[in-house]
Amino acid sequence: AAAVAGAVAQLCAASRTAPPGSSPERVLAAVRGELLAPLLDALHAASTAGLEGGASSSPLVCSHLAAAVAPLLEEDPTWTAAATALASVAERRIELGRVASQPDAALAACFAGLAAAAAAPGTPAREVAFSCASRLRAAWTAAATAAALESAPAAPAGVRPLPSAAQARLEALLEASRPLCVALCRADGGWLREVLAWLLPAPAAAGEPQDGAARALLAPLLELALAHTHARTPLPEGTVGLLFAACDGDGAAGVAAGVPAPLLPALCVASNKWAKDEELAALIDRDQAILDAALDGGGGAAEALSKLHRWVWLSKAAVCRGQAFVARQPAALVGLIERAAELADRSTSPAVAIAAARWVDTACGGLRMLVQPPGALLLRETGASCSPLLSQRLSAALLPRLAPSSAGDRPAGAPGSAAASLWRVHATVMVLLGLPAAALPPLLRLAPTASLWLRHVLQHCCDGGDGGGDSVPRALLGGDAAAERVEQALAVMLAFAGKLPEANNRDGAQAEAALAEAIPAALRFAGLATQLLPPGPASRLTERALQLLDSAASTLPPPTLYPLKKRVLRDLQDLLDHRKRVVRSAASRCSNRWHAVKG
User: Fold this and answer.
1) Alpha carbons within 13 A on the beta-carbon side of 343
2) 522-556 confidence digits (pLDDT tens)
3) Any idea what DSSP says for residue 271?
4) What is the model's pTM?
């Protein structure tokens, strides 16, 4: 079966390269047609045998045969028999439990072929693909219901919990069906209307609470449908308002843990592509009024955290449009951070101070999201409004306002500094983290700030502190946030190190000095990470710290490196025997690089 799949792939590749109308092209087309019927018979037999308890190799045989049929269907999407066979195999594998927590090659091949059929307008095979997708709703709903009922296994502090078996199966099913969903959305707006009626019912039609939990797990389908449906397709009236209300309800339950609503990305896409400017501004102002009232009174800060999440996502949709939103929303977000940090610093109520500190953390993450490129969320080819050079324009407006008042400012929690100033350094790092790599060379002057933050975070992690006695430091550095902060700080410093060759003399000298100052802290952390963090994050962050040391050895001038060479090589000895291969490999590369440093 594997040989057949390989031969069919070569045949299709040769067919695509043959000149149209030539003799080779006609011969290949004829052979392709003769192959289809026996392949479909073999696929039907293999899939039936595997699903009825046949030989253990049947699922693999089925995978290879489905992979052979899919490119044939892509060559000619009018082959209804192939589309019907692929749809039948996909449905049987789902119904009889063949969708495991790992990617299913046969299912992915079936959906890839059906996606090609869905993209061919006016063909019977396209109708088969649409019919299969409609019947998939039952499988998606059953998988989401099982995932909602099954709790995830417990995880150690500081480690993101692994998904349960049912959640893993749901994720595998959604990932396998992604190509088909994208093709359906780009082919016809009717699929979007069907998904909206299914996953975003009117409040009066809401079912049991568990039904809502299952729909929340299927939010990626709604996000996918909105992202890949063209903006010229009319959206049912009131959809943006329904999403706005659903995000408020979904986020309220998880606000204590700081978990945003699962429908927030869908709200962002719908607002950007279909809402009018005045409608979008009204939604933003509505949440802004609630946020202002919460900060003024202080008592409602915890309850309003879900509104802050929603406000940030609406701001993302707005600033991508450009116009006045580019200046208005970032300034408003920085203002919210300032006020929340001040509330956390002055409040005598621990609950209010902790809630305000969470605001600071959430809003700093919002700065990163604002400057990030839209990526796969807002697609220009489907009519999303994406202003050009948006990341650069936003960073140019934000960074001067976030800059410390003097070069000697230190992060909060350090001796002689105010706790309320910590958010400035953290917010600056988050803005840098959201920028594309191409935008970093002109900002190398900020490398000392990134180095200062990295050294402060690593020192806090190695010393085992809780971020200080103030609420803002605890929210940004204490508890489970430490590993995330270390990863963010290392990522920014590694990005700056990679851009040093492009720097001018002045900025380059400042960045080189900042990178050199970070070497002792990174070296100390690499040696202690296994003792300080759970195994997963410890190995990953140790590797990142070693990458920074490797990058410093290849970038900085020898006179700067040589005084540190002996210490670095001595401390790397233990890491060469680390229990994780990835860490041993990184330590070996780093050691070789430092051995080559000459005085």
Assistant:
1) 28
2) 999 999 988 888 888 899 999 999 999 999 999 99
3) H
4) 0.84
